[in-house]
């Protein structure tokens, strides 16, 4: 959330941010509401002051036996009370509208963020791992085919049990997923992260605190009600990312200076409807409704957030370096910057199985596995997270940052495609072998039931 004083005093900067982020909001209306609200607050203060003076006069007049003047003063006091109630009622309506409007104002992009209309104007900063590629098969089988051939992923039965966008991981597929999660956590623990295992349901106040609400209610899984029904602070939702519970772990709290910087790493399953997403670009294990992820959340002093932002990027990259997967770093332009972010990098891993537009010269496609974001004080202001530079000083808002460290499904996709062999097996990356009992190659499993024999199984 932006500070209302900042919005009032820097309307053109806010207007530019709205345009650059593609947010449609009537800023002039919001500023007019703020102005009328401030006028009413001032009028209310004047009315309370005058009423207090009149109340004093009533007592003095009665003591002096000036009953007629006292009655006039009582009538004036009642008039002031009625007017004050009207002013406070109107101010309350405006305050609610103002708060709602402020919740819909996006974060101001950092000055150095490239201006652009959409993802086509993001800036590629660098590529890593392409100078020493492993030898790949002549034809790379897409992950959704080799995953089913080796009985690693079962999309059909996942859809039968939970609907489209859900899947079963089986055998070495499940084992590989578990290995990646534990590997990610171990790597980040080396960088000073404290492990957190958060609750899966989160309340509406937590979703609002990190900026998911009110903008993204349509993508969330609500517990016990439809998404379009009104919701209160205590209504529950399945978490879309561990960023939500971990950031809100310190909602409405004040750190002392020595607490910071604070770094949490959290594994969680995540749930997103991903409404409207379909097609070849999202086929298979690329964009699903339930997925595992390790999230990195940082709380820092404002003067440290720029350096910590670059450090967080490096920490997220480390898992890909150890897995020896090629990837690239994109800096988001203003038009592709999220609602809450002042600055963001995307890490995109190379998956060579499907040739897509905008892929590298080597073929294949890019898959986003992490967004590393600096929110500055935007989330902290919404969630009431502060710190005291000195114990005797006023509290200030911290800066929050986060990044996936990293999302598991697309790393799985990249491994299944990049580590394929000519004989149809998949090599286990060296960094993961200790987590898979020393296993070096995934050879697959036999099918179960009639599918193992062919439909009918009568031949």
Automatic annotation (TrEMBL):
GO terms for molecular function: ATP binding; serine-tRNA ligase activity. GO terms for biological process: selenocysteine biosynthetic process; seryl-tRNA aminoacylation. CDD domains: SerRS_core. It holds the Pfam family tRNA-synt_2b. Residues 142-429 form the Aminoacyl-transfer RNA synthetases class-II family profile domain. Keywords: Aminoacyl-tRNA synthetase, ATP-binding, Cytoplasm, Ligase, Nucleotide-binding, Protein biosynthesis. One of its GO terms (cellular component) is cytoplasm. InterPro entries: aa-tRNA-synt_IIb, aa-tRNA-synth_II, aa-tRNA-synth_II/BPL/LPL, Ser-tRNA-ligase_type_1, Ser-tRNA-synth_1_N, SerRS_1_N_sf, SerRS_core, tRNA-bd_arm. It catalyses: tRNA(Sec) + L-serine + ATP = L-seryl-tRNA(Sec) + AMP + diphosphate + H(+); tRNA(Ser) + L-serine + ATP = L-seryl-tRNA(Ser) + AMP + diphosphate + H(+). Consists of two distinct domains, a catalytic core and a N-terminal extension that is involved in tRNA binding. This is Serine--tRNA ligase. It comes from Halovivax cerinus.
């Amino acid at each position: 959330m932006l500070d209302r004083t900042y919005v009032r005093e820097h309307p053109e900067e806010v207007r530019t941010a709205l345009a650059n982020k593609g947010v449609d909001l009537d800023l002039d209306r919001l500023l007019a509401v703020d102005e009328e609200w401030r006028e009413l607050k001032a009028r209310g203060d004047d009315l309370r002051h005058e009423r207090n003076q009149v109340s004093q006069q009533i007592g003095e007049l009665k003591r002096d036996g000036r009953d007629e003047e006292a009655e006039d003063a009582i009538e004036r006091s009642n008039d002031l009370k009625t007017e004050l109630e009207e002013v406070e009622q109107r101010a309350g309506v405006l305050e609610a509208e103002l708060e709602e409007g402020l919740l819909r104002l996006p974060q101001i992009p950092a000055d150095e963020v490239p201006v652009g209309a959409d993802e086509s104007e993001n800036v590629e900063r660098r590529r890593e791992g392409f100078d020493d590629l492993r030898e790949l098969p002549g034809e790379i089988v897409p992950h959704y085919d080799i995953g089913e051939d080796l009985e690693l992923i079962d999309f059909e039965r996942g859809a039968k049990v939970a609907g489209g966008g859900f899947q079963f991981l089986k055998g070495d597929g499940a084992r590989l997923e578990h290995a990646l999660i534990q590997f990610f956590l171990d790597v980040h623990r080396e960088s000073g992260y404290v492990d957190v295992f958060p609750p899966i349901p989160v309340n509406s106040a937590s979703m609002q605190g990190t900026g998911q609400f009110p903008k993204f209610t349509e993508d969330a899984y609500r517990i016990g009600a439809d998404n379009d029904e009104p919701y209160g602070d205590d209504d529950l939702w399945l978490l879309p990312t561990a960023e939500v519970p971990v950031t809100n772990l310190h909602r409405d709290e004040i750190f002392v200076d020595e607490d910071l910087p604070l770094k949490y790493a959290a594994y969680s399953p995540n749930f997103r409807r991903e409404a409207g997403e379909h097609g070849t670009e999202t086929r298979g294990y690329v964009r699903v409704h339930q997925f595992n992820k390790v999230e990195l959340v940082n709380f820092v002093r404002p003067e440290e957030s720029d350096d910590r932002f670059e450090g967080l990027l490096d920490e997220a990259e480390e898992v890909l370096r150890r897995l020896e997967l090629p990837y690239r770093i994109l800096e988001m332009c203003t038009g592709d910057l999220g609602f809450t972010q002042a600055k963001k990098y995307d890490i995109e891993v190379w998956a060579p199985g499907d040739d897509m537009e905008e892929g590298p010269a080597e073929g294949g496609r890019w898959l986003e596995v992490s967004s590393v974001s600096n929110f500055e004080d935007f989330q902290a202001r919404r969630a009431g997270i502060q710190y005291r530079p000195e114990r005797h000083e006023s509290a200030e808002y911290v800066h929050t940052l986060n990044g996936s460290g990293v999302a598991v499904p697309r790393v799985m996709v990249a491994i299944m495609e990049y580590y394929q062999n000519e004989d149809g097996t998949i090599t286990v990356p060296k960094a993961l072998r200790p987590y898979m009992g020393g296993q070096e190659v995934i050879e697959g499993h036999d099918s179960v039931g009639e599918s193992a024999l062919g439909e009918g199984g009568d031949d």
